[in-house]
User: Which sequence fits this backbone?
């Protein structure tokens, strides 16, 4: 039990009272960070702080006794540090916190430079002329996978150096969502050909389904008898509306022979449990991701190119589809003989990202101590 005195807030931005945890990773990130910071000896309390007008009710998809959730108005006089993560505060709210001696951290867990590029180049409005860049942060913390593309974007606009902090994750939500599924949603071998799954969001180039589909295609050309179906989720719109996507997919044997289907949106635990034997993934500039961790924690073979967690799953390098297909064939040919050892190995690797991991706790404790030694911005 912590004996510290620090009172921490972490912002979220609710859009619905019963908002799903599975539509993006931001709310999960806030909860995982809260659970992590609760382990730090210097911290007395951690609250989630909603910055929108959406009411906080029992419909929230997390335990409010474990992760108490309040409005900004309720929190503003009882904070020593506010970590802006999932909801932005205004200039006036910032000024008020400063009068109370509260320090403000920008916690960056999205590849914002990519979002801005796409907004500008492809007419995806984000803020128009009404851009507010808060320049009164006391620190900028960013998860490792966004530093390579967005660190300079953060630093130039916010006029402060940014530093990499540990990426944290907890299986609590995937476990909770999987309780009602057979074997609690964990992987179990099935006889016969395998169901391949691609679950990229397909919102931008960072996580897009084309190379995973190509990996499936290359493996299918060699061992078609071992593939039952290729599911590509979050792709129904593309398969109906994008002439370019349709034209490319129609070049693939796995599509021409009716072994591929393009589906809408599903939550990860349900689709893994009910529709999946193997997951194929590809990323650009997003080499750590909760999706990978959810898949591997549940023991599903993951064929991926995320170099920051290359010790998870079946790793191939870069954009090498041939290597990815070789990894997929390895899964098809031999994974089930050692599936239990694989599950245990995945969980051992993932233990280094969990709240309570001594190295993670020590690093966040150090970061907070450094912050408190600085004058308030």
Assistant:
């Amino acid at each position: 039990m912590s004996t510290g005195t620090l009172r921490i807030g972490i912002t979220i931005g609710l859009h619905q009272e019963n908002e799903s945890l599975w539509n993006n990773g931001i709310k999960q990130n806030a909860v995982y960070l809260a659970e992590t910071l609760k382990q730090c000896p210097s911290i007395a309390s951690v609250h989630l702080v909603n910055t929108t007008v959406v009411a906080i009710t029992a419909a929230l998809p997390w335990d409010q006794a474990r992760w108490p959730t309040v409005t900004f108005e309720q929190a503003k006089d009882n904070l020593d540090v506010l970590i802006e993560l999932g909801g932005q505060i205004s200039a006036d709210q910032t000024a008020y916190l400063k009068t109370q001696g509260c320090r403000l951290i920008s916690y960056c867990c999205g590849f914002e430079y990519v979002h801005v590029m796409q907004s500008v180049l492809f007419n995806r409005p984000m803020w128009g002329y009404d851009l507010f860049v808060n320049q009164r942060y006391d620190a900028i913390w960013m998860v490792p996978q966004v530093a390579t593309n967005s660190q300079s974007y953060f630093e130039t606009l916010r006029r402060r150096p940014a530093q990499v902090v540990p990426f944290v994750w907890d299986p609590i939500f995937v476990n909770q969502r999987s309780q009602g599924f057979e074997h609690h949603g964990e992987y179990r071998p099935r006889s016969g050909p395998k169901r391949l799954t691609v679950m990229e969001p397909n919102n931008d180039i960072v996580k897009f389904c084309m190379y995973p589909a190509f990996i499936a295609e290359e493996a299918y050309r060699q061992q078609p008898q071992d593939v039952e179906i290729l599911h590509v989720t979050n792709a129904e719109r593309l398969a109906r509306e994008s002439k370019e996507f349709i034209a490319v997919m129609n070049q693939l044997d796995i599509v021409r022979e009716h072994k591929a289907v393009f589906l809408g949106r599903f939550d990860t635990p349900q689709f893994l449990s009910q529709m999946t034997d193997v997951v194929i993934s590809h990323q650009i500039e997003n080499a750590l991701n909760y999706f990978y961790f959810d898949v591997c924690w549940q023991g599903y073979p993951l064929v991926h190119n995320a170099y920051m967690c290359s010790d998870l799953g079946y790793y191939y390098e870069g954009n090498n589809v041939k290597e990815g297909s070789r990894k997929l064939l390895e899964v098809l040919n031999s994974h089930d003989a050692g599936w239990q050892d694989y599950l245990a190995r995945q969980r051992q690797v993932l233990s280094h990202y969990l709240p309570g991991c001594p190295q993670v706790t020590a690093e966040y404790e150090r970061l907070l101590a450094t912050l408190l030694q600085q004058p308030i911005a």
User: Anything to note?
Assistant: The chain has two domains: 6-168+355-373, 172-352. The longest strand covers residues 43-50.
